[in-house]
């Protein structure tokens, strides 16, 4: 089966990794057809193992190899393409569009948090089929009320986010 591993916290806050080295760790764990997309921790690979087993193996090996607490989220090729197909937002020059890759039931928690936040002009959050999509004005991502919540350490093992453009690049490389 083909997967994308979405690593959390890569090349931010002092956690620096070369994607070629990350790919080597995946290969040393027995993954096939390993490649990266951008430098933000998106690793494409194939494996016959189940998702729970893959998550445990890869997080353990990444943690020991790089000396940090690794968190990753796995999506199959079909799941990534399904997320893109359901994207409720139209491209707009003045907005970023994000998708949250989460552990089970976290997307509904994000939706609850979003609902109580003060929103900027045009900022929207939409929960569709356990995927949370967020539209925020460019330049306001980290300053928005919702953006500040996302940096909370309580979320580190529950989610990571990607710009929708990143998911489009991933889908093209599958």
TrEMBL record:
Gene3D superfamilies per record: bacterial protein sp0830 like, SP0830-like domains
Pfam families named in the record: DUF1697
Protein name in the entry: DUF1697 domain-containing protein
Source organism of the structure: Kaistella solincola
